[in-house]
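Narrative progress, year one. The postdoctoral researcher (J.K.) led the effort to move from monomer predictions toward full complexes, under supervision of the PI. The following entry was the first complex the group processed end to end, covering 636 residues in total.
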Amino acid sequence: MSTDNIHKTVAEASSLISWDTWDRIKHTESFVLLSSVLFVLLFSYAFGRAPVVSDVFQGYHGLAITILIWSIFALGFNLLLGQTGLLSFGHAMFFGTASYAAALFAIHVYNDPLAVIVVGTLAAVALGAVAALILLRLHTVYFSIVALAIGQFLYFLAREPLVEITKGINGLEVPRSAVFGVFELEHQYGGLLGELVVNNLYLFVGVFFVAVVASITRIRKSPYGLIFKAIRENETRTAFVGLDVWRYKFAAFLLSAAIVGLAGGLMAVNTQFAGVERLYWSVSGDVVVMTVLGGLGTLAGPVIGTFVFFYFKGIVNGFPTLGNYWLLLLSLSFTTVVWVYRDGIWGMITALTGALRDPRELVAAVRARVTGGDSTGDAPGGED
Amino acid sequence: MALLETRGLTKEFGGLTALDDVDIDVEEGELVSLIGPNGAGKSTLINTITGRLHPTEGQVSYAGTELVGMKPFEIAQLGVGRSFQTASILPELTVRENVQVASFAAEHGSFRVNFFRRRDSFDEVQSRTNDILDTIGLDSKARMEAGSLPYGDKRRLEVAIGLATDPDLLFMDEPTAGMSPTETQMTVNLIHDLLADWGMTIFLVEHDMDIVFDVSDRIFTLHQGRLIAQGTPEEIRENPAVREAYLGGGEQ
């Protein structure tokens, strides 16, 4: 009798953590915040130093920092493409301009990493306001192409006519300086902290990464998150309910520019350098690939996409023989993933974990795919 | 003065005159219907009044405000709502989110800076959304993706979005098209409720003549862009020009 009771209690206790509860928890802001903090703390270690895991990844600390910064870039880009449905092929303009602004401010005015990054972000926002006045008049492919054109215009402008300021193809050097004159970015930690984060530079970038993830989560849960999606789905309908679509698109554009600008500023601090190649069109292309590969419109997607991109570029690239074909291998993976899963790698993960929960759904999904039925049954990755 | 007035409203597409010198008046609190054979210009008239199309000539005034030249969102903010002929919903959003977008527009105006506030913290928006879902009878499907709704429910959601914008004047463009008899009856009941309990003014475009003659206070008849008759259902039923347009037009 008593054992029955115990069994009952155990069964009830385990049902407390049901799938429904998990679904609720995983969308809360505190869970997202906690996950991003844990991710930052463990990422460099798992990537570069942990036993077994790092042997698989063969990563290193410097690349981990680069991936965090580019993840911020991809998250900012995704706010515009994934949430609002505006595909810009010119987001390098914010990355590169912020980098230059940060470097110029550090060289000519005041060199504190924090101030430098704020200046970079503000420069990107200012550029965003001007670019939006031109771009938001345009739709679909015209929007994308003119964004590309503005980016390339700035690239050539920085390369030749403004060579006095930008030092052209040589670029600008940003001397290292301490945050508030106290926290040296190169400072190395010992013990467990040293094992996890190595130095202040990683912590500095990590704090911004967490802040960006938290901000984007909040924006997605705000009225803007909903209205951005509404604009993506049906712009005309959104206008006819009484919303000023132009101003909401303008807001999305500026928020996106600010986050990408932050990444650009961080890049200048991280590499101690700002150069013209950050304005080049292929940078805009890379961020599109990262975002779409990882999972459009989701939070984890752009981060995963950035990781995979740099894994190919930084690690596979160094493999004997195979390394020569890293770009080909990346393209093959990209095509395969996006062909099968519209929501990229993150969509693939959510579909697979969803299938593990309910095998019947998996069978139905496979059958639908084989018989050529529509694939709307795919779990939308991190929707909301 | 009437709530809505058009004067000499004309819309030309190239050489084609879709609306020809249309004068209509809609009084506050009444239900008027617009009928006419296919291609008579019914949708063009709605689109011209609500700002989707710009008239070639003429004026539209709503509660004393000139609407010509205003953007659709500005007209919506004045209290002119509309539901679309084809279910113009937001397919990848949930039913609840579809209504919520319109509730935000009604409660917060056309634009507000609040991107760092959670949307479930706006109680007035939540309660408006709940009220509308309850009124339309979609509350049990609130968490479904709108695109996966059956056709009749999509049409109801379309009306729900229009209602959530809190209009004083609501344009309903063929709200019962494609609905089952039960759903049609629900929609007719809803229209009666909106007039009686919500004090709304309704401008209905409808193909189902039984509904039109049942619910309308007055009926406008459009034919080849011209207003050929207006009056009570009895007057319209007996009107020879209307009979001619429908029987002689050969389109119905």
